[in-house]
Backbone:
């Protein structure tokens, strides 16, 4: 039986599903399952609770139907169908629930519990509390087997399910499982309240950290770009890293990169590099004097606006000394502006930083994404896009940070398929309704097939009765037909014999005509023929060939005196020779031999 058909049935509502389960358990028949040959007495049916409890305790993943076929025990029709329905429901749940494969596999092991309870209670085995709990597992859509604390907590709860179901098997009552489901829901409500606080706290913390990262990285990018491949006096390098780098970072933190202070601080950084690098400033001595007169005051001015207090006099002493030396035309000792051991890392992309448009972010924010396949699958929740750094903040959906990813990397992973949206999850209640709807459709078809088979059996019995009544008549008809067939075959043989004789006569006639034609063609001028008289008492007439007219195929004969002219067409003379009414003299004695030779040549050619 297929899981789905091209014409998908309308899914039954919950109440009708409950009613249909009993019919399916008692009426459906599945090929290749070990149904009993007939109706079994109650004491002949094997108790399968110890077997199912053993499978549940060992947390086996194999279907119930395979387990019951692996042992040589007697099972009732209801037991076998309960096992099949439980396998079918949990098989569909594994494929369509959308939960992490490991989590879905653990839940699907409830097939042993459901098979046991459906055999006893039918539809009551699918208690509303249990179904509601299974539906609530959609809240665990983001669970991944990463080994984190929250992931282990969920597995610990499922370990409690093992104890609850085992207790239900031992006591014969579902109360332990019902209590487990209620406790789970209470814990989930408490966790959700805690998660709201965790999510808010995480967002505030990460937004502050993002602002700090942006300030740090942007300042590094600006300083790194200005000092790259430069040789500067140590005093200038020290002032930039000890004072100006921190000032730039503070400006980015408080005002961003669109402010006047950012523009002035960036320009003054370029002046410091330009003044300190002789390769740059020696080319324009006039500008060097102008910059030297203004740079100190402007540095103090920007510093005071940003920090709300003046820059200490000692901070600028080194830079002032360099300025004096440069104005005197001296070249101070130079050192590499950036450390050679890559201690100062920087990324120029922070200076051209652009955020994606809200229309790009909104469809993706608040969605689950999956990376990897199977047991290695990892799920992450797109909690927020940090605006200061354009980083995706990943969480486990419950306020626990899983990491950060730049927007560019995120977009690239989506395009390459290494990161993909989590498909919609299917609640257990929907899986149950769709599965029972499908099986009820199968049951209806099987009932129709059984009714059709019963009607066909009745029709076959009636047909056999009629066949017996007609058996004698059929035998008589067969005998009559046999005799008629014998007569027909005899008639066919006689007709064939006559046809063969006629064919032989026609063949002989053709052969005689061929021989006669050779005789006619061989008559020379002056050759003689004898024409037998058509009337009684009349003598034959001897005629001599006088003229042969080839154009009209005509032969002209005369008698001894050259009189009594007689004309024959070639075909006419041939026919007369075949009929024996004309003989060719000089060849009459040889006619039969000629005929034999011609017939022989014809036969040889035919063979």
Residues:
């Amino acid at each position: 039986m297929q899981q789905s058909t091209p014409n998908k049935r309308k899914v039954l509502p919950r109440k009708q599903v409950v009613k249909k389960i009993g019919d399916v358990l008692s009426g459906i028949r599945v090929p290749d399952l070990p149904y009993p040959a007939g109706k079994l007495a109650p004491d002949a049916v094997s108790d399968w609770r110890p077997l199912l409890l053993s499978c549940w305790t060992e947390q086996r993943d194999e279907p119930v139907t395979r387990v019951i076929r692996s042992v040589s025990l007697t099972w009732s029709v209801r037991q076998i169908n309960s096992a099949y329905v439980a396998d079918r429901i949990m098989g569909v749940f594994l494929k369509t629930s959308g939960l992490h494969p490991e989590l879905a596999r653990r839940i699907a092991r409830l097939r042993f519990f459901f098979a046991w309870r459906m055999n006893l209670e039918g539809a009551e085995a699918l208690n509303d509390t249990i179904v509601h709990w299974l539906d609530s597992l959609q809240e665990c859509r983001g669970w991944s087997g990463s080994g984190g604390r929250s992931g282990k907590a969920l597995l610990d709860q499922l370990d409690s399910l093992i104890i609850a179901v085992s207790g239900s098997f031992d006591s014969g009552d579902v109360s332990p499982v019902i209590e487990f489901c209620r406790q789970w829901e209470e814990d989930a409500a408490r966790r959700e309240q805690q998660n709201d606080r965790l999510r808010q706290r995480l967002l505030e913390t990460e937004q502050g950290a993002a602002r700090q990262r942006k300030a740090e990285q942007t300042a590094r990018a600006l300083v790194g770009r200005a000092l790259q491949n430069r040789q500067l006096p140590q005093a200038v390098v020290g002032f930039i890293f000890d004072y100006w780098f921190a000032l730039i970072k503070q400006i980015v933190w408080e005002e961003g990169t669109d402010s006047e202070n950012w523009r002035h601080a960036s320009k003054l950084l370029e002046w410091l590099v330009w003044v300190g690098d002789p390769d740059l400033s020696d080319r324009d001595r006039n500008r060097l004097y102008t910059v030297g007169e203004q740079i100190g005051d402007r540095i103090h001015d920007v510093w005071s606006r940003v920090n709300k207090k003046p820059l200490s006099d000692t901070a600028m002493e080194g830079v002032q000394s360099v300025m004096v030396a440069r104005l005197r035309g001296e070249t101070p000792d130079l050192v590499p502006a950036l450390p050679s051991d890559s201690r100062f890392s920087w990324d120029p992309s922070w200076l051209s930083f652009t955020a994606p448009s809200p229309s790009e972010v909104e469809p993706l924010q608040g969605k689950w994404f999956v990376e990897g396949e199977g047991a290695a699958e990892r799920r992450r929740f797109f909690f927020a896009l940090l605006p200061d750094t354009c980083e995706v903040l990943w969480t486990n959906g419950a306020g626990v940070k899983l990491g950060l990813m730049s927007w560019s990397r995120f977009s690239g992973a989506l395009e390459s398929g290494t990161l993909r949206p989590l498909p919609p999850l299917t609640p257990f209640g929907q899986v149950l309704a769709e599965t029972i709807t499908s099986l009820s459709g199968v049951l209806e078809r099987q009932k129709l097939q059984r009714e059709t088979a019963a009607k066909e059996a009745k029709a076959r019995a009636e047909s056999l009765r009629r066949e017996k009544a007609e058996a004698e008549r059929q035998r008589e008809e067969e005998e009559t037909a046999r005799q008629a067939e014998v007569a027909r075959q005899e008639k066919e043989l006689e007709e064939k014999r006559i046809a063969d004789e006629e064919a032989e006569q026609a063949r002989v006639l053709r052969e005689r005509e061929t021989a006669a034609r050779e005789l006619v063609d061989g008559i020379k001028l002056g050759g003689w023929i004898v024409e037998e008289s058509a009337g009684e008492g009349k003598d034959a007439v001897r005629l001599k060939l006088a003229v042969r007219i080839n154009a009209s195929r005509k032969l002209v004969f005369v008698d001894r005196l050259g009189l009594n002219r007689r004309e024959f067409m070639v075909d006419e003379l041939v026919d007369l020779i075949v009929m024996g009414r004309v003989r060719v003299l000089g060849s009459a004695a040889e006619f039969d031999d000629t005929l034999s030779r011609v017939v022989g040549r014809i036969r040889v050619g035919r063979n």
Q: What stands out?
A: Confidence is low (pLDDT under 50) at residues 1-7, 587-591.
